[in-house]
Request: fold
Amino acid sequence: MISHIADGLGPDGVSLFISGTEGARDIDALHEHGITTVINCAVNLDINYADTLTHAAESGKRGAGSAPVRTYKVGLIDGGGNSADMMLGAYFILEGSLDQTLPERSSYPTRKRGNVLVHCRGGRSRSVALVALFLHRQKPELFPTLSDAISHVRVTRELHPDEWFETPKQSLIDAAERAASVLNLIDESRRS
Reply:
């Protein structure tokens, strides 16, 4: 299931979605939702989107090419074990994906800008923490605290209230809070 989370983000005012693996690998569903960018938050979860091969597979090497969506990968662990800066890095990848404009060159065939999907295996912890951090930072008038943003994402993602104690896991909430603190310090240094 692909869940619509928020609208009006980034310079193009795109919509943000969350899913687990099944939603992220459904190209037809991505197109139906106008999703042109996919951000994978999970370590050791690789989805082969390449539909145009530019490098054929050969002995000891995999094929490579381009995909119908722009893809970014973070590699967060679902729980403890992430370095202190992993969530901050994930935030910058999500923010950067919205701001990035690809050049008109054949090596960048998937240039169309559209909606963004953030996913992990189940779309319940890593994705929720990252998207909540992003909403808190990008729309503070709607989500003045990280907790407000997490509550919104839990509801729009249709996570069962019995699971809210672990969706997202506390270690990922802690990571998002640390990232928010660092981002606040960056904002303060830019203002001074």
In short: DSSP finds six helices and seven strands in the chain. The radius of gyration is 17 Å. Residues 5 and 80 are 25 Å apart (CA to CA).
